Amino acid sequence: MEDTVTNVDRVITAIRNANLQHPDEELLECFVHDSIDPGRTARYVLQSRSIGRDALDLTLLLSDWKELIGTFTHELPFHQKLDRVFIADIWRRDGGKCCITGLKNSFSDPLVVAPILPIINPIRKSLHEMLEAFLGSEGQQWIPMNEAASLDAHRKYWLVRKSAATALSQGYYRFTFLKGSEYHVTTACIGGPAWPPILEKTPVLQPRQFATCSASGMGTPDVYSLQILSRFAKPVRWSCIDRKIARKRSQPHSQLPVFSLWRLFPERITMTSTIGWHMVPASLRIQVYHCLAFMGARVYGQSCSLKVQQLPFGMYLKTSDVKWHESLANEYETLRLVRRYTRIPVPRPLDLVSYMGESYLLTSQVPGLRLGWCIDTLSDDEVGMLVHDLQGYIGELRAIPKEVAPDYAITNALGKPCFDYRLNAALDYDEDRGDFVGPFADEEQFNETLQCGALPGVTHRSGHEIVFTHGDLNMRNILVRNGRLSGIVDWETSGWYPGFWDYTKAHYITKLHRRWLRIVDKIFQQYGGYEDELATERQLWDYCF
């Protein structure tokens, strides 16, 4: 067991240290992690691709792996002619519902009788060993040109929505089989920002059962074929992304305008109009915002955050309980500061109002999509530009002068207590204090708040430069458009903090997405990297949280 773990670690470490072009690293990791026996697959790599004591020929391995994935990347032959009686049998057996989504027939997206596995072209002999390393000897024999060809024809076909079959062929669905004929369908949301619409109708995890659609007595869809497809799902997704990135390199970028009423007016005119609007009674303004929010939900759908809603006319509305009003007030002031002192693309603050226990922040829209929706499909060149842009903008942000609360070093943008869930996680809840901590006279006082009583020797050093900080840099709050940074949003945790705070908070929020964390590391290299501060924070996180 120990040798197996060691071999897998050796191969994965070699892949991650090879500085491969995106998404080649992800593709090769899939070869190991998604195989039927990762230890055996790692041994295959070490034995067949070694070119020295500690080196691996990843170039040849990658080329062969991409070719093998290509045999499972296909367009389903919906034009394939099947016997009418055979089609009727499949419809009857599967109960007139899609075996992937459970949906019934639709005029715009009809049910089709489709093969489970594609018709695979003969695989060249030199790849048979690789296929066996990935699927095992039994799986290698089960591909359609071998044992699967002897299956009852009914077991090789099933009833599925046409769009679901296409999504399956692109690696969006995986199957996990439980006891008996029960199975789970899971969606693999790798890629973006555009997803097949059928995924919106499919839960991330959906329980299904072949027994419920097999009362006819015919053989159920072949489980082993679905297991093979599931193992190839993530490799197929990354292969599709690889081709998408290659196509982007040969296409010119187009900057289509995003309509926003507020982009048509200069800052001075906007300020004048908002001042006039602020003279309208709060109750009436909020009624207008409720109407716009209702319209926005109908037109744009609900936001991924319950407290944020896109509105018509290029606006966003953020809502909170009045006890968190200061966090919205902090964001409102921050947007004013950032727009005054920097070139960072941020929303215009349009209104801040409280009424009847609720607070509302109205801002303009910034064009772009959340980085988290796009990061998989960004090329390495686009990531390089993103790093460059963020380095420049963060440099401008850190240069914003502190002109409030001179008696306190660490405060929010208004010179008041800080709103930050990392700070709150270090403290027992105090009803009188609420979720706002500080302000802090100096960094020593701030560091004491971060300490854990069980780890008295674990603390940050003092002496960092106190700079203006976003406080919540993550893939939700960074917007990109056509591969370039287009905006930074969600500033409610911002304020003046020690220089390492944005860096360690980015690692605190996102701990597993390696590509994003590499971006974060590159951004803050210009300030020394803050590796020691991150190590201290991780000690506190691991023990306390």
TrEMBL record:
Keywords: Kinase, Transferase
Ranges for domain Aminoglycoside phosphotransferase: 321-528
Pfam families referenced in this protein's UniProt entry, alphabetically: APH
GO MF entries: kinase activity
PANTHER family: AMINOGLYCOSIDE PHOSPHOTRANSFERASE DOMAIN-CONTAINING PROTEIN, AMINOGLYCOSIDE PHOSPHOTRANSFERASE-RELATED-RELATED
The protein's name: Kinase-like domain-containing protein
